[in-house]
Amino acid sequence: MTEWEKLQAGLVYNDFDPDLFQRRVVAKKLFRQYNKTADDEIALRHDLMQKLFKHVGRDVWIEPDFRCEFGKNITIEDNVYINFGCVILDCAEVSIGANSLLGPNIGIYAVNHALDAEDRCQGACHGKPVHIGRRVWLGGDVKILEGVTIGDDTVIGAGSIVTKDIPSGVIAVGNPCRVVRQLTDADKTGYSKS
């Protein structure tokens, strides 16, 4: 089994593997090209996203400076906005649901190094998927750790560090991030004409 196959299977893999290094090189070339594009180069941006990601939907807008580790484990559904400075370490599957908004300086880390120092020095890593639901809003500087699922329609407050699953339809904040309350009809502004 190759190190890439181990990574894909969620097993411990060697982070120093030459094949993984080359896969990172490919991703870096693509996201660096993307980050140099102008706002009106929409077709070029979409083409680069299609090459970089496992799947990218319609009307996805990613502000520079975007960075990721491999890209090929990232799925982004339709109508997603990702603000400046997003970093996604996609050593496992990362999915972002439709109509989601990600604030500036978001970090999504689907990877963790071994806790044992000797294993860590030898390159031992493992990843767990991160799933962000539909119509989610992540405030600025939110960090999401490996294995986390955030439910649909949820708001994560700025600066939060999400270490465990967060259900649908709630506001959650803090370090570690915790549910503050359910979203209710009282949160509606009347702006949407449903």
Describe this structure in words.
It contains four helices and 20 strands. It has 194 residues and is an alpha/beta fold. It has a single domain, classed as Hexapeptide repeat proteins (UDP N-Acetylglucosamine Acyltransferase, domain 1), CATH 2.160.10.10. Strands 3-6-9-14-17-19-20 form a seven-stranded mixed β-sheet, with no helix packed on it. A five-stranded parallel β-sheet has the order 2-5-8-13-16, with helices on one face. Helix 2 (18-35) runs antiparallel to helix 3 (42-52). The protein starts with a helix and ends in a 12-residue tail after the last strand.
Give the biggest sheet. Answer: 7 strands, mixed
What overall geometry do the principal axes of the alpha carbons give?
globular
Question: What is the mean pLDDT?
Answer: 96
SSE string, helices as H and strands as E: HEHHEEEEEEEEEEHEEEEEEEEE
Helix content percent band:
10-25%
As a whole number of angstroms, the C-alpha radius of gyration is 17 Å
Can you tell me the CATH superfamily? Answer: Hexapeptide repeat proteins
Rounded to the nearest angstrom, the distance between the terminal CA atoms is 52 Å
Count of discrete domains: 1
Q: Which structural class best describes the helix and strand composition?
A: alpha/beta
CATH topology: UDP N-Acetylglucosamine Acyltransferase, domain 1
Q: Mind telling me which CATH architecture this is?
A: 3 Solenoid
- Largest beta sheet: what is the strand line-up? 3-6-9-14-17-19-20
CATH class: Mainly Beta
